[in-house]
Amino acid sequence: MPKKKKSGVKRYGPRYGRKPRKEVQEIEEKKKKSYRCPMCTKKSLKWKSFGVWECDSCGLQLAGGAWTPLTETGEASLRAVRRAKMGKEIE
């Protein structure tokens, strides 16, 4: 039977309580996940440092959220800009 991969929060042991360790685990999973690159559309965008994301395929570097390339606030602002552009084109 294969061994189950340990999560990164096992290093804390019983310290700090369950909820903070669970939150750290969710953040680390988001950070380590590969995202889709906006330029080459390959799933190779990875976290480089705090707020900096780099595509392994095309070499694109972009500034984004701390743990995800696009934050909820960023997505909302993009939608607002898109809506404003659409409204101007219709008029």
Share of residues in strands: 5-15%
Question: Helix content range of the residues, please?
Answer: 25-40%
Distance between the termini: 65 Å
- Write the CATH fold name of the largest domain: N-terminal domain of TfIIb
What CATH architecture of the largest domain do you see? Single Sheet
CATH class of the largest domain: Mainly Beta
| Major sheet summary line | 3 strands, antiparallel
Q: What count of structural domains?
A: 2
Element order, helices and strands?
A: HEEEH
Sheet with the most strands: spatial strand order:
1-2-3
Task: Give the rounded overall mean pLDDT.
Answer: 86
Can you summarize this structure?
The protein is α+β, with helices and mostly antiparallel strands and 91 residues long. It folds into two domains: 32 residues, no CATH class; 58 residues, N-terminal domain of TfIIb (Single Sheet). It is built from two helices and three strands.
Describe the overall structure.
With 91 residues, this protein is of the alpha+beta class. It has 2 domains: 1-32, no CATH class; 34-91, N-terminal domain of TfIIb. Helices cover 37% and strands 13% of the residues. The chain has 2 helices and 3 strands, in the order αβββα. It has helices at 18-32, 72-90, and strands at residues 45-49, 52-55, 61-63. Strands 1-2-3 form a 3-stranded antiparallel sheet, with no helix packed on it. A hairpin with a 2-residue loop joins strand 1 (45-49) and strand 2. The chain is extended. The protein starts with 17 loop residues before the first helix and ends with a helix.
